[in-house]
C-alpha cells in the first residue's frame, strides 16, 4: 500500500516538473543557508566552552565614571585587584592575572636568533588550574612557583625549536629595561579559536616583581590599570550575590581612596566575545546584536522558502480538487487522501533536505572563509545540525501537507467536480497574503543590505583628519642598545628615492594609545575639574604631524630643537573642548599637570581619528618624543610603488639593527582591519539577501505560471475582441504588481525603524534618506517584472485559437 502512495507522489512530481523544481530549489537553498547560519551562531556562542571552569570564571574590568555616567570601559584593572578580591569576597576561591607584555608584538631570542611573538602574558601560579589549556609536555604541578619559568604553545615550540620536546630550553626576552632568561617548563596545545585569551607564551608573574618598571607602569600599585584580572567563583555561586559583594568591594576601595571616579565590574568570560567592547581587549570581539540579526534573517529566508512551498502547494491542491472528487467517487477515504498528501509533502521535504546537505558539503569552505571561521569548524559532527534538519523536514511536511490533506479531503465530491471550490476566493486570499508576507521579508532584507553597504563605505571613506596613504610603518627593534642607531637609519632612508619623510611615535592612527584619567593627574592648571575624562597620550617627534597630514589649528609644531625636558605637548580640539576652552588659540601657553610635572600646550591640531571611526572622537595629548626608536617608525612615500622598496628598506634596517627581525605594515591596511568583522557581516548578509530574493522570485514565477494558466481562455477571448499585447501585458502583470506595491507599503515603515535602531550604534553614520528605500524598492519591482514577464509575454503573444479551439 505505502509503495503505491510513493508511486503516485513520484508521478505527480514528474507531471508538475516545473513546480517540483521550484520547490526543491527554494527549500534546499533555504535549508542550507539557515543551517549554515545556525551553526555559525552556535560557534559564536561557544566561546570559552573549552574551559572546564568557564561558568565559574569572571573577568574584572573598570568603568570610569563622570558622576553616574560611564565615560570609558576598560577591560584591564589595577594589579592588586584580584588578590584583594580573593581576600575580601566570600564567593571568590582563586584568581589569576594576565599582564600583556610587549604589545602588539614581542621580539625574543633563541640562541641569538630573533623571533616575533604576538601574544605574551605574565600570569599567576593559578592560571592553568583556572583555565583549561592542556599540557602536552611538562606537568602542571609546581608550575610557575618560581620566577623565570615559561610555558609556550605547540606552534611556538615548533617555530622556536622545531620540536615540542623543549622542556629546559632557554628563551631570552626583553623585560623592562633589561633582558631576562626564561626556561621552558611546559608546552600546551594551541589556544582554541573560540577563546578571547590566546597566547604564544606565558611566564610566571613573579618574574615581574624583580623588575622595578615595565612599560613605565609600576606593577603592584593602584595607580595603573594594566592587567587582565580573572576570579574563580565557588561552585554554584549565585551571581546576583557576587554582584552585591562586588558593590561592597567597590565601596571599600573608594573609602580607602584606592579608586576615584571608577568602579570594578564583573563580567562572565562567556559574555566577553559577544557582549564586550571595552578598551584594550585582547582581540576584536563579535557583536551579539549582529549575530542575532543574522539568525533572524536566516529564519526569514527559510520562512520565505516555506511560504513558497505552501503557496505553490495550495495552488496545485486547488488544481487537484477534481482529482480528489474522483477518488472519493471511486471509494477513496478521507484518511487515504490525507495520507497521500502527507506522503508527497514528506518526499519533497526529504529530497530538499538531501540537496541541502549536498550544498553544504560543496560550499562549506566558502562559508568558512566568508564567516571568518576556523578551518576545523564542525558542522555534520554536531548533533544540533541534525536536530534542526529533522525539525525542518517535519515542519515542512505539516506546513505544506496540512492544507491539501485537511481542506481538500474534507469536501464533498459533487462540490469539487462542479468546480465550485476552485472558483471560490478562499485559496486566492491565502495565496495573495503569503506573497505579500514573502515580499515584505524580501524588501526589508534588500533595503537593509543596501544600507549596510552604504554605512560601511561611509566609515571607510570618512574624513580621518590624517592622510594614511603610502605610509609604511616599521616596528622597533627589541634591544635597547640598538635604538641609538635610529638617526643613521632615518638619514639613509631619506636618501632613498620616493621617501619623503620619516617619523617615530608611540602609535599611529589606527592603533590604540596609552590612556589616562583626570583622576590620575591630568588637570588643566587654573581650572578645577568638575568632570572625569579619559585622555589618550601619544609620543611623537617633530615630523609626525606633517607626515600624517594633520592640520595645526593654533600654535606651533614641535621642532628638532625641542627637548623632552621642555615638557611641551600638542593637543587636539576635543581635549580643549572638554577643558571648556572655546578657541584653539586660547589654549596656547596654558599648562597641564600630570605625572607630577607641568606641561606647556604648544599647539592645537584638528581632530583626527586615532583608533576607529566607529567610536566618538577622543581627546588626545601628543607629548614630544626625542629620536629614540622604541615603538614604530613611519615612512612616507612621495611616489612610486612603496611595495617595491620594501626589500631596500629591510636591507637598511638590518644594517643598523643586525639580528633584529624586520616587521612592518602599511598604515592604510592596518587601519582597515577594524572593518574586517563588518565586511564579514556584510558578506554573509548579502548572501542571505540574494537567496531570499531568489526564493521569492522563484515562488512568484511559479505562482504566475499557475495564475496565468488559469486565465488562458480569458486572454484568448480578450484578444479576439481586440485587446492589444501591451494591454494584455498590463492586465496579466497588474495583479502581481499591486501585491508587491502593498508589500512595499508594509515593509518600508518596518525597515525604517530597524535601520534607525541599527545606525544609532555608530558615532559616524549616514543619514536615513529617501533613496535608501527608493533604489532597493525599484530593484524589487524590476525583479518582479523579470520574474513574470516571460510567462506573461508568451501568453499575450499566443494564438487565441489554441486556447479556444475546444470551446
From TrEMBL:
Coiled coil regions in record: none
InterPro entries in UniProt: ABC3_permease_C, MacB_PCD, Macrolide_Exporter_MacB
Record keywords: Cell membrane, Membrane, Transmembrane, Transmembrane helix
Transmembrane segments: 21-41, 291-312, 345-363, 383-408, 429-450, 684-709, 739-758, 770-788
ABC3 transporter permease C-terminal domain residues: 297-413, 687-787
Gene Ontology cellular component terms for the protein in this record: plasma membrane
Keyword Metal-binding carried by entry: no
Top-level taxon in the UniProt lineage: Bacteria
Topology with respect to the bilayer: Multi-pass membrane protein
Record GO terms (molecular function): transmembrane transporter activity
Keyword Cell membrane: yes
Predominant location: membrane
Domain MacB-like periplasmic core: 20-240
Pfam families referenced in this protein's UniProt entry, alphabetically: FtsX, MacB_PCD
Subcellular location: Cell membrane
Protein name as annotated: Uncharacterized protein
Amino acid at each position: 500500500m505505502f509503495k503505491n502512495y510513493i508511486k503516485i507522489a513520484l508521478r505527480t512530481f514528474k507531471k508538475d516538473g516545473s513546480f517540483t523544481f521550484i520547490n526543491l530549489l527554494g527549500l534546499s537553498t533555504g535549508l542550507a543557508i539557515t543551517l549554515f547560519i545556525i551553526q555559525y551562531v552556535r560557534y559564536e556562542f561557544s566561546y570559552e566552552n573549552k574551559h572546564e571552569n568557564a561558568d565559574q570564571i569572571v573577568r574584572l574590568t573598570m568603568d570610569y565614571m563622570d558622576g553616574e555616567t560611564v565615560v570609558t570601559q576598560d577591560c584591564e584593572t589595577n594589579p592588586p585587584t584580584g588578590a584583594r578580591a580573593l581576600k575580601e569576597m566570600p564567593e571568590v576561591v582563586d584568581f589569576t592575572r594576565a599582564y600583556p607584555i610587549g604589545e602588539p608584538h614581542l621580539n625574543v631570542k633563541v640562541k641569538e636568533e630573533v623571533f616575533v611573538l604576538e601574544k605574551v602574558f605574565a600570569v599567576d601560579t593559578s592560571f592553568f588550574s583556572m583555565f583549561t589549556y592542556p599540557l602536552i609536555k611538562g606537568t602542571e604541578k609546581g608550575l610557575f612557583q618560581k620566577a623565570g619559568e615559561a610555558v609556550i604553545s605547540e606552534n611556538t615550540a615548533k617555530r622556536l625549536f622545531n620540536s615540542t620536546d623543549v622542556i629546559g630550553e632557554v628563551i631570552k626576552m626583553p623585560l623592562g629595561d633589561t633582558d631576562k632568561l626564561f626556561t621552558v617548563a611546559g608546552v600546551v596545545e594551541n589556544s582554541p579559536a573560540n577563546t578571547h585569551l590566546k597566547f604564544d607564551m606565558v611566564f610566571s608573574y613573579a618574574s615581574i616583581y624583580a623588575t622595578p618598571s615595565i612599560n613605565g607602569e609600576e606593577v603592584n600599585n593602584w595607580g595603573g590599570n594594566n592587567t587582565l584580572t580573572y576570579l574563580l567563583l565557588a561552585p554554584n555561586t549565585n551571581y546576583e550575590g557576587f554582584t552585591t559583594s562586588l558593590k561592597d568591594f567597590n565601596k571599600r576601595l573608594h573609602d580607602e581612596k584606592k579608586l576615584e571616579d571608577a568602579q570594578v565590574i564583573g563580567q562572565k568570560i562567556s559574555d566577553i566575545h559577544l557582549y564586550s567592547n571595552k578598551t584594550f581587549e585582547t582581540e576584536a570581539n563579535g557583536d551579539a546584536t549582529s549575530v542575532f540579526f543574522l539568525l533572524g534573517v536566516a529564519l526569514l529566508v527559510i520562512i520565505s522558502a516555506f511560504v513558497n512551498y505552501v503557496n505553490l502547494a495550495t495552488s496545485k491542491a486547488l488544481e487537484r480538487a477534481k482529482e480528489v472528487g474522483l477518488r472519493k467517487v471511486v471509494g477513496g477515504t478521507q484518511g487515504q487522501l490525507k495520507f497521500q498528501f502527507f506522503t508527497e509533502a514528506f518526499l519533497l521535504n526529504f529530497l530538499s533536505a538531501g540537496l541541502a546537505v549536498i550544498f553544504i558539503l560543496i560550499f562549506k569552505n566558502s562559508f568558512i572563509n566568508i564567516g571568518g571561521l576556523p578551518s576545523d569548524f564542525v558542522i555534520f559532527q554536531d548533533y544540533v545540525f541534525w536536530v534542526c534538519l529533522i525539525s525542518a523536514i517535519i515542519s515542512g511536511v505539516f506546513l505544506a501537507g496540512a492544507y491539501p490533506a485537511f481542506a481538500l479531503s474534507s469536501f464533498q465530491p459533487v462540490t469539487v467536480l462542479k468546480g465550485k471550490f476552485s472558483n471560490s476566493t478562499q485559496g486566492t486570499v491565502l495565496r495573495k497574503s503569503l506573497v505579500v508576507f514573502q515580499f515584505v521579508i524580501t524588501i526589508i532584507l534588500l533595503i537593509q543590505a543596501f544600507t549596510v553597504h552604504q554605512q560601511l563605505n561611509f566609515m571607510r571613506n570618512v574624513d580621518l583628519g590624517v592622510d594614511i596613504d603610502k605610509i609604511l610603518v616599521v616596528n622597533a627593534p627589541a634591544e635597547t642598545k640598538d635604538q641609538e642607531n635610529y638617526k643613521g637609519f632615518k638619514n639613509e632612508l631619506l636618501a632613498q628615492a620616493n621617501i619623503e619623510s620619516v617619523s617615530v611615535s608611540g602609535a599611529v592612527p589606527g592603533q590604540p594609545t596609552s590612556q589616562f584619567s583626570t583622576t590620575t593627574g591630568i588637570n588643566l592648571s587654573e581650572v578645577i575639574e568638575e568632570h572625569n575624562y579619559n585622555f589618550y597620550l601619544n609620543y611623537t617627534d617633530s615630523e609626525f604631524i606633517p607626515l600624517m597630514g594633520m592640520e595645526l589649528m593654533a600654535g606651533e609644531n614641535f621642532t628638532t630643537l625641542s627637548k623632552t625636558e621642555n615638557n611641551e605637548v600638542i593637543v587636539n580640539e576635543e581635549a580643549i573642548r572638554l577643558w571648556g576652552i572655546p578657541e584653539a588659540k586660547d589654549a596656547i601657553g596654558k599648562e597641564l599637570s600630570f605625572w607630577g610635572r607641568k606641561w606647556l600646550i604648544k599647539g592645537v591640531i584638528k581632530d583626527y581619528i586615532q583608533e576607529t571611526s566607529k567610536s566618538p572622537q577622543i581627546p588626545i595629548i601628543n607629548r614630544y618624543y626625542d629620536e629614540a626608536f622604541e615603538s614604530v617608525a613611519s615612512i612616507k612615500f612621495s611616489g612610486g610603488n612603496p611595495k617595491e622598496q620594501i626589500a631596500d628598506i629591510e636591507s637598511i634596517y638590518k644594517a643598523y639593527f643586525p639580528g633584529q627581525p624586520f616587521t612592518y605594515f602599511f598604515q592604510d591596511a592596518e587601519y582597515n582591519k577594524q572593518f574586517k568583522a563588518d565586511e564579514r557581516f556584510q558578506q554573509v548578509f548579502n548572501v542571505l539577501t540574494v537567496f531570499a530574493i531568489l526564493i521569492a522570485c522563484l515562488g512568484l514565477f511559479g505562482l504566475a505560471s499557475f495564475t496565468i494558466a488559469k486565465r488562458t481562455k480569458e486572454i484568448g477571448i480578450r484578444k479576439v475582441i481586440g485587446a492589444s499585447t501591451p494591454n494584455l501585458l498590463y492586465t496579466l502583470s497588474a495583479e502581481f504588481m499591486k501585491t508587491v506595491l502593498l508589500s512595499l507599503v508594509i515593509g518600508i515603515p518596518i525597515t525604517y525603524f530597524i535601520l534607525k535602531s541599527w545606525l544609532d550604534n555608530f558615532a559616524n553614520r549616514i543619514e536615513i534618506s529617501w533613496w535608501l528605500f527608493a533604489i532597493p524598492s525599484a530593484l524589487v519591482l524590476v525583479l518582479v517584472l523579470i520574474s513574470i514577464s516571460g510567462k506573461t509575454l508568451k501568453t499575450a503573444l499566443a494564438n487565441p485559437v489554441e486556447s479556444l479551439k475546444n470551446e
